[in-house]
Amino acid sequence: MHDALKEIQSAREAIWLEEPLEVKQLSDRKAARGQAATTLLSATTKLATLITFLNHVRGVARQGGVDLGTMKAVTAPYLAFHANVLAGFYRLAETARIVRLAEGALAVVDDLDGFATLLGELSIYLNRVDYWIDLRVPWAAFGRTFEKELSR
After folding, report:
1. Per residue in 16-34, pLDDT tens?
2. Cβ–Cβ under 8 Å, residues 149 and 40
3. Where do the domains of the chain lie?
């Protein structure tokens, strides 16, 4: 697990100050009606869902009194599902690779502290990816258009 933690941390450091190429290219992924807004907004929603889950199960693990095997059994398929979605529709291959790395590392986690640490590191990484996606959304123009459409 320590190798996976180091790799997740390194991946986070690599994108901390520089936007990942896969996020730059996310705007090229056109969705409904040939526009990228749906892609960006959906990607940030998917990441938020995953991050919320990770933080929740991490908190449960930190409180203790739960079975590590059950926590792994619940978490691993959730990570696998999201890795497939991120790699598939969103083409966030590196992000999906990091999620899969964490999923694989779950197999060797031997206590709740290790489980919580792994998920915490993954959550920080994913939050940074989400940060970069959020910066791509033209929120001011989106808000003006939204209000204009509501007033019709």
Report:
1. 999 999 999 998 888 777 7
2. no
3. 2-150
Which pTM value belongs to this model? 0.93
DSSP-assigned states of every residue in 10-71: HHHHHHHSS--HHHHGGGG---GGG-SHHHHHHHHHHHHHHHHHHHHHHHHHHH--S-HHHH
Residues 6 or more apart from 86 whose CB is under 8 A from it? 43, 46, 47, 92, 95, 96, 99
Contacts of 5 (CB under 8 A, 6+ apart): 105, 117, 118, 121
| pLDDT tens for each residue of 71-103 | 999 999 999 999 999 999 899 999 999 999 999
**Angle at CA 147, nearest 5°, toward 44 and 38?**
30
Burial code of 120-139, b = ≥16 C-beta within 10 A, e = fewer? bbbbebbebbbebbbebbee
